[in-house]
Amino acid sequence: MKSFFSRRSDLPLDRDAHSRFLPWLIAFMVFLAVLALAGVLVLKQVAARWDQGVSGTLSIQVPPADVPSADETRLGEVLKVLATTGGIDRYEVITDQRMAALLKPWLGDIRDMAELPLPQLIDVKLKPGNELDLAVLEDQLKVVVPGVSIDDHQIWLAKLVSLIRTVQGVATLILIFIACATIGTVIFTTRTGLAIHREAIEVLHLIGAHDTYIAGQFSNRALMLGLKGGILGLLLGVPTILGVGYLAGQTDGFLLPGMHLTTIHWIGVACLPVFVASIAMMTARTTVMRTLAGML
């Protein structure tokens, strides 16, 4: 039984030494493409999750008083201002237990939060589409409690999303470069094969073979080699993605939340070998047709 990757050919293309390296080159390119594509998909997912979770939120910091017993009074004055401010959907005071959980990655287990002069934090959720003047709100809060500050998450979120978009752009450029390198490699390999088998091609012409038939010999060969290299590159790339995802999962999801691919993403990654093989096939066919047209 003939192998799936071997096709009948009137040209001895299987004996070409130069074509033996093509699957390995394509495997390396597909490996890089798998990593780049996975990076683009994951970064897009992370950016959307951060945007959804942080957009339209504020953090208000109430500094500790010189007398600890006055902290509750100061906090109450701030909450009164928030309760009468339009554009605020809801607000929540961060408890000591939650504060300790947030600080645990850096300070470890904190037994007594009173030992640390930490400000009291209030999470504020704004109403959708309501533009609140934060400068005015901050001035109102400072009147009742001096030293109060507002942290607008949208500012650092915009910078973070901008960074992610830049990385996505670089990864996309890598995918384009990989596609161009694949096309260039197939063109070089095909032209070399045409030069080696020039006499055999002329014989096929003499017995009535059309250019499309000869081009089909090369394109089928490029398709098979592309699939072999693409599958090998995929087999190398998938464990790498899983390993990176496992390591990212050990960060407690703080800096790298949701570092995993969905089912649709995995389907896209799995289709890369077919896509690359199709590019190789079309490139080989186009190269042969143009070269043979110039030989007439």
Characteristic terms for this protein:
296 residues; alpha+beta; 2 domains; 9 helices; disordered N terminus
- Shape label: elongated
Tally of structural domains:
2
How much of the sequence is in beta strands? 5-15%
The Rg value, from CA coordinates, equals 31 Å
How is the largest sheet built, in terms of strand order? 2-3-1-4
Oligomer: single chain
What is the average per-residue confidence, as pLDDT, rounded to a whole number?
81
The profile of the biggest β sheet is: 4 strands, antiparallel
Please, how many helices? 9
Order of helices and strands: HEHEHEHEHHHHH
**Beta strands, count:** 4
Structure, explained:
- The chain is α+β, with helices and mostly antiparallel strands.
- It has two domains: 13-52 and 157-295, no CATH class; 64-147, no CATH class.
- 65% of the residues lie in helices and 8% in strands.
- The chain has nine helices and four strands.
- The protein has a four-stranded antiparallel sheet with strand order 2-3-1-4.
- Helix 5 crosses helix 9 (272-295).
- The radius of gyration is 31 Å and the shape is elongated.
